[in-house]
């Protein structure tokens, strides 16, 4: 379908065994919206942290993070956060809407 694209990648290798699964999917919608989803399964009891590395100024507004640098802007909002406990860890999904 024109204006849509999807990629899915395995990002678990850099975590050196702390995660048994880290898949990230990104849905591109019309060149202006990106929906990012993470599927994580951890091996230990440490809590998950979602970190966003950026350049520019960030402010919080209505449950969203707004990042600006020059004329560029980025809105990041957590849309859904689910988790379930298990013997091998916890599975957590973050779905974020990113608007340029």
Structure, briefly:
The protein is mainly beta and 100 residues long. Helix content is 0%, strand content 65%. The chain has a domain at 4-51 and 80-99.
The end-to-end span amounts to: 21 Å
Approximately how much beta-strand content do the residues carry?
A: over 45%
For the report, how would you describe the main beta sheet?
Answer: 7 strands, antiparallel
- How many whole angstroms does the radius of gyration measure? 15 Å
Kindly state the number of beta strands. Answer: 7
Strand order of the main beta sheet, please? 1-2-3-7-6-5-4
Low-confidence parts lasting 5 or more residues at pLDDT below 50? 84-93
Describe the global form: globular
What's the total helix number? 0
